[in-house]
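Title: Prediction job returns without error message
Component: structure pipeline
Severity: low
Priority: P3
Assignee: unassigned

Description:
Job completed but the reporter wants confirmation the result is attached to the right record. Sequence as submitted:
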Amino acid sequence: MFGSQINRTAQQPDMALASPPPDSISKMMFAPVISPLAGGTDILAVGSWDNNVRLYAVRNDGQSEPRAMYSHDKPVLDLCWHSDGTKVYSGGCDGAVKCFDLATGQATTLHTHDKPVKCVAFVNTGGQQILVSAGWDKQLRYWDVNNNRAIIRPGSSGPVMLSDRPYAMDHNGQILVIGTADRMIHTFRWSDPFTSAVSRDSPLRWQTKVIKCFPSIEAYAIGSIEGRVGVHYPFMPMDDKISYSFKCHRHDLSNGGVPQGIVNHATTVSHNGAILPSQYVFAVNDICFHKEYETFCTAGSDGAITFWDGMGRTKLKGMTLKELNNGDSESKPPQFGSPVTSCAFNSNHTIFAYAFSYDWSKGHMGVPTANQPNLAPRIMLHPVKQEEVQKKKK
């Protein structure tokens, strides 16, 4: 439908996804299970700024092919899967929350927000199947998937109102965490999803970019535009010794300098009042957990990916631009490549997908032109090695 498959080469050890979107990739997510509707393969859902959500079949050997596509009226900002892998939900700048049914091949609009929908999440809790959406109208909405109706607070006539526009959201079986534009982090428990159990300032000083919950504990990893990640336990005291943060996706100017084009995606910072910047700092665009080991990776606008043991405070593996075939492999570090805007593990954590595309850090002025084919969006499929994701023995 969208083109032919792309095969592995000696220079390109990771497989390229067949026919990726032509515009920036906002979100990728594999189906949580292999559904019979997928013919025994993983299905990768990809949301893009070209207004479309595309579904791809991905085999164990990394071969891929497009399977389906549906559209919003404006760019897609987020998507998620039903827990049984039969439906995809998405939200976009058109304010619509949509559902695509793999069995029928049809997309329907469930409900709408007054402004763009930044975050969506599917939750199985208390015997209910709930779709959560958060929009730039500052509304947090819950939708009963089985009965196709809104879930509202008893005695209320409307949705939950957030303190500001949502920038990031994630959940596990215990908590729902939302980061807003005013640098607040709101944590909800499913026993009362209409009232924030804890609302605190972000543990990071700069704008929240991504939040991902640890799979099995009441904790989350948060990334910001400042090249920093925090590991936070929201129900612990503010001065606890467990929560912490660390720097990542940064490059010192003393390490050979930065190619001219890197300025498109970096922010300079000064140390000790120095006039000249000492580092180029890149946004952390995505965080993805390995659900078995509870380790995670960070994807940055510097075009690099790093795996971490958050509980052990240990770096596991850094995937360099040369390893990722991203940018000029001959340039001195820090090398420059396309930002990594999204990443995802497949259902059994044997394949790791990562997307290169423009991150919109410079608005329309920074959009790659037709004579920059090396910056065109692409998605790579990486065979996961245990040493990359497994915690190191002490």
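Comment from assignee: result matches the submitted record. The radius of gyration is 20 Å.
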